[in-house]
Structure formats: C-alpha cells, structure tokens
From TrEMBL:
The keyword Signal does not apply. Coiled coil: none annotated. This is Rxr1. It comes from Oikopleura dioica (Tunicate). The keyword GTP-binding does not apply. GO terms for cellular component: nucleus. GO terms for molecular function: DNA-binding transcription factor activity; sequence-specific DNA binding; zinc ion binding.
Length: 239
C-alpha cells in the first residue's frame, strides 16, 4: 500500500483503477463465476472482480466524486497510468487473445527446462514462438477436464485427428508429457536460430534422459521411447 486512498489503504494501481471506474462509470463483466482470485500478482485478471474487491475493502465512490470538486491546484498529481492505463490495454489483449494466460505459463515453463536459460535470449524467443501452436494443441489434448470453450472448438479438428489419437494411445505419464513438450520446444530446425547446434546438443541430452526413463519405468514396454519419437513429425505437421 502506498497510502490511504478513498477510505482504505491501497496501492497506486488500485487507486487509479478505482478512480477511473467511478469517474467514467465503467461497467465490467466476469467471464467466470464472479469469484476470481484477485491479488497483487493477478489483479488484472478480471476487472469486475477487482472492482468488487475494492468495494468490499471499503473504497468509497463518494470520495472519488468529492475529489472532482476540489480546486485544480488541490488535484492530485496525475499518474501517467491514469491517463494511459496499460492494464486496460492488457485486458483488451486478453479479450482478443484467449490464449494469453497460456502464453505466459508457456514462457515460465520454458524458462525452467534444464539448460534452456543458457541459450541466447534471441534463440529462447525463437523457440518459444515456433513451438507455441504445437504446445497449445498438446496441452488441450492431454487435459481431458478442459470444459468446452471457443478455444477448444477451434482446436477440435486437431484434437480429434489420427495423430492426437495415437499420442493418447501411448498413455504418457506426466514426466513423459513434459519431456515430449520440451523436445518440441527444443527444435534445432526452428527458423531464425543463431546457435542451432547448441539447441541440438540440449535436445540430444533430453532424448537420452527420456529413453533411460522409459526403460526404467516401463521395462515391459519395449520400444516405448521410439513410439513417442515417431509421433513428432506428424505432430509438427498439424502444428
């Protein structure tokens, strides 16, 4: 909190958000069930729930209205975020691209793959961008609990394809799924890479690690590792 604003202690971001909402009489809707978690990290996730949390915390709309009656000299210094609220731009972007949340998780996930951070920043960006669609399709294919949504409808022709059916038939465990996604990410043939040989070196280490895992975890399933790798070219063709 940066001080007391409109009756409660809050940060500058929430102060500006509440003031804009009241002054412009903005109306929001919640895309979920009006119970989104709103905290410092996720405060821009849902404007409706954020505004409700401001009201529940005790922020007073009258305080914003009274502020307008002050002489100009007494007006608070205008925060650039009030004049051009980049958080609103983010919300618009999320409305336009329903995969924004997945994209952020995708970047965080990639950064935790062993050796990925040793690559140049340029090559990291190239790999993430190139693998995005394939990883999105795999995520939906593996998540059987995902409710029907515009995204799943768009992806339906991919999810019901022979390629995805064959991948599901292997019944990958969580470790194998993660390794398969990492192999897709670490594609040395991605266009625009500065150091493809470094990417190839990391991928080969991953191949060796996954093969050892398959042999030790599923000793009775001969050729399991090869079956997984055989799906990669076909998966890339639909991505």
């Amino acid at each position: 909190a940066s001080g007391k604003h409109y009756g409660v202690f809050s940060c500058e971001g929430c102060k500006g958000f509440f003031k804009r909402t009241v002054r412009k009489n903005l109306k929001y809707t919640c895309r979920d069930e009006k119970s989104c978690a709103i905290d410092k990290r996720q405060r821009n996730r849902c404007q409706y729930c954020r505004y409700q949390k401001c009201l529940l915390a005790g922020m007073k709309k009258e305080a914003v209205q009274d502020e307008r009656k002050r002489p100009a000299a007494e007006e608070d210094f205008e925060n650039p975020l009030d004049e051009m609220p980049v958080v609103d731009i983010l919300e618009a972007e999320r409305e336009y691209n329903g995969q924004a949340e997945f994209h952020l998780r995708h970047i965080k996930w990639a950064s935790r793959i062993p050796h990925f951070k040793t690559l140049s920043y340029h090559d990291q960006k190239v790999l993430i961008k190139t693998a995005y669609t394939e990883l999105l399709i795999l995520n939906f294919a593996f998540d059987q609990t995902k409710a029907s949504s515009p995204q799943t409808m768009v992806l339906e022709r991919y999810l019901s394809s022979d390629v995805m059916t064959k991948i599901r038939q292997i019944q990958l465990d969580e470790t194998e799924r993660g390794a398969l996604k990492a192999i897709i990410l670490l594609n040395p043939d991605s266009r625009g890479l500065q150091f493809p040989e470094t990417v190839l070196s990391i991928r080969e280490k991953l191949y060796a690690s996954l093969e050892a895992y398959c042999k030790s975890t599923f000793p009775e399933r001969k050729g399991r590792f090869a079956r997984i790798l055989l799906r990669l070219p076909a998966l890339r063709s639909i991505g």
